[in-house]
Design brief:
eight-stranded mixed β-sheet; elongated; alpha/beta
Length: 317
C-alpha cells in the first residue's frame, strides 16, 4: 500500500523547512512496514519565498513541486496534486505546521485495515483564536451537518486519507477540502473520524475567517442540487410546466370572455396573470438550464488547459 502526500502551500516560507523535515521523519518510521511514499507540494501562487524554498528541497523520497499560475485556492491546489499523484492512496496535509505529521502513523494503521474507507482528522483540542477561527468553524460545521446529513465533527480538518480510485474528486466543487465528507456522505464509503493533534500557528497568518461561512452556504445550496439530481430536475421542471399550464388557462379564458361572453378581458387581471405565469415558467426552465451548464463545466474541468505546471520532480528509487 503506497501513498501520495499532497501539501498545498501559500506564503508559508517560514514553515516549509520544519514541515518537510517532520514529514520525512514520519515517513521513515512508516517505510519499514513496506509502504512507499511520494511527496507533492503545490505552490498556490505564493508571493513570498515559498516556491524558492520548495524548489531547493533535497529529500530521500520522491518529491514533486507543482506551481499554480496564480493563487487559485487550497481546494484547486489539492486537486492539481491528486491529478499528478503516482499512487492511489492520497494523504492531505496542511502546510502551516498546525497539522502534526506524526498523526499519519495511527491514521495509516487504521486505513490499511479497512476497505473503501476515508480516514478523516478531528481537531478535538483546536489551538486557534476563538472568534476568528473556532467560532466560524463551529457555525460552518453545524450548517454542513444540518444540510448534508454528515455526522463528521470537524469538516475543516485538512488531515485525510482516501483512495482516489473510489472517489471521483474531479466532480467535486467549491471548498473541496472543507466539504469532502459531506459530498460523499451518501456513497458506500465508510468515513472514520480520528482525533488528531492540532498545534497553534506560530508563523505566517491564516487566510480564512468569517467569510468561510458564506462560502460554505453557497456550496451547500449547490451540493443539495447535485446530490438530488433527479429530484431537482423533475421538481423544477414540474413547476415550470405547471406555470405554463396556468398561463394557457388564462389565455383560453380571455379568449372565451371576448368571443363568447362579449366582455373585455382587459378589465380583468387575466393579462397580468398570463404574463406572470409565462415568465415564471421561463424562469424555472432557465434555472434547470443554468444548473445543467454548471454541472457540465465541473465535469469538463479536466479538459480545460492546466492551471499549473510541474516545476520539479525528484524520483528516488
Amino acid at each position: 500500500m503506497n501513498f501520495s502526500i499532497i501539501v498545498p502551500i501559500f506564503n508559508e516560507s517560514e514553515s516549509i523547512i520544519k514541515l518537510n523535515s517532520e514529514i520525512i521523519e514520519t515517513v521513515n518510521l512508516i517505510k519499514p512496514k513496506g509502504h512507499l511514499f511520494e511527496l507533492i507540494y503545490v505552490d498556490d501562487g505564493s508571493t513570498d519565498n515559498s516556491f524558492k524554498i520548495l524548489n531547493n528541497l533535497k529529500n530521500p523520497i520522491s518529491t514533486t513541486i507543482l506551481k499554480n499560475y496564480k493563487n487559485l485556492s487550497q481546494s484547486t491546489s489539492i486537486l492539481n496534486g491528486v491529478e499528478c499523484s503516482a499512487y492511489d492512496n492520497i494523504i492531505l496535509l496542511d502546510g502551516d505546521l498546525q497539522n502534526d505529521p506524526n498523526d499519519l502513523i495511527k491514521m495509516i494503521e487504521k486505513y490499511e485495515k479497512k476497505e473503501n474507507v476515508v480516514i478523516h482528522g478531528y481537531r478535538k483540542f483546536r489551538q486557534d483564536p476563538f472568534f476568528s477561527k473556532k467560532l466560524p468553524s463551529r457555525i460552518a460545521n453545524f450548517l454542513v451537518r444540518f444540510f448534508s446529513g454528515s455526522s463528521i465533527s470537524d469538516h475543516g480538518c485538512s488531515l485525510k486519507i482516501f483512495n482516489k480510485t473510489s472517489i471521483d474528486v474531479h466532480n467535486f466543487f467549491g471548498d473541496f477540502h472543507r466539504l469532502f465528507a459531506a459530498q460523499i456522505v451518501n456513497k458506500e464509503i465508510n468515513i472514520i473520524e480520528m482525533e488528531v493533534n492540532h498545534r497553534p500557528r506560530l508563523k505566517g497568518q491564516s487566510n480564512y475567517g468569517f467569510e468561510r461561512i458564506f462560502r460554505v452556504l453557497i456550496d451547500l445550496i449547490f451540493l443539495n442540487f447535485v446530490k438530488n439530481e433527479k429530484s431537482y430536475f423533475y421538481s423544477i421542471g414540474f413547476l415550470g410546466l405547471f406555470s405554463f399550464f396556468l398561463s394557457i388557462l388564462c389565455l383560453i379564458y380571455m379568449v372565451y370572455l371576448k368571443l363568447f361572453m362579449g366582455q373585455s378581458f382587459i378589465l380583468t387581471p387575466l393579462p397580468i396573470l398570463f404574463f406572470f405565469f409565462s415568465i415564471t415558467g421561463l424562469i424555472f426552465f432557465s434555472i434547470i438550464l443554468t444548473l445543467e451548464t454548471i454541472k457540465k463545466m465541473i465535469k469538463n474541468k479536466n479538459e480545460i488547459k492546466k492551471n499549473y505546471k510541474m516545476v520539479k520532480k525528484d524520483f528516488i528509487s
